């Protein structure tokens, strides 16, 4: 059960099925079954955005792409660790020397199940952990 139903807040990245990436700390209608841990996605770009094809400062698509790149890396890491959602997503940036800026997306990777399935999924998780030992 990697993929929760529902369209809101979902992100699709290359090689990863849809995954929730939300700025809130819960997913309405879902229960957090397991906290996987902190995930971080970063990308670095030249501070001169015109290098990447921006014609004027009001060109949002290129600037938005940098942020989406950081989100995609964060989501891919969460998926690789067995999560199907990232909650508490935040953004940050910092200058790296005189020419570069790092854009960072971070949050908490979690495994969620629809609220009505939480007791059943919890029992299955406990059984799987016992078998692994």
Automatic annotation (TrEMBL):
<protein>
    <submittedName>
        <fullName>Uncharacterized protein</fullName>
    </submittedName>
</protein>
<dbReference type="InterPro" id="IPR002765">
    <property type="entry name" value="UPF0145_YbjQ-like"/>
</dbReference>
<dbReference type="Pfam" id="PF01906">
    <property type="entry name" value="YbjQ_1"/>
</dbReference>
<dbReference type="InterPro" id="IPR035439">
    <property type="entry name" value="UPF0145_dom_sf"/>
</dbReference>
<comment type="similarity">
    <text>Belongs to the UPF0145 family.</text>
</comment>
């Amino acid at each position: 059960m990697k993929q929760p139903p529902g369209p809101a807040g979902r992100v699709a990245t290359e090689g990863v099925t849809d995954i929730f990436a939300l700025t809130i700390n819960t997913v309405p209608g879902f229960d957090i079954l397991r906290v996987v841990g902190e995930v971080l996605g970063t990308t670095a770009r030249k501070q001169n955005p015109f290098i990447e094809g921006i014609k004027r400062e009001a060109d949002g698509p290129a600037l938005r792409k940098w942020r989406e790149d950081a989100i995609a890396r964060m989501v891919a890491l969460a998926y690789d660790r067995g999560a199907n959602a990232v909650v508490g997503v935040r953004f940050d940036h910092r200058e790296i020397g005189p020419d570069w800026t790092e854009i960072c997306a971070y949050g908490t990777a979690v495994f969620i199940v629809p609220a009505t399935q939480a007791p059943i999924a919890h029992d299955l998780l406990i059984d799987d952990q016992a078998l692994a030992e």
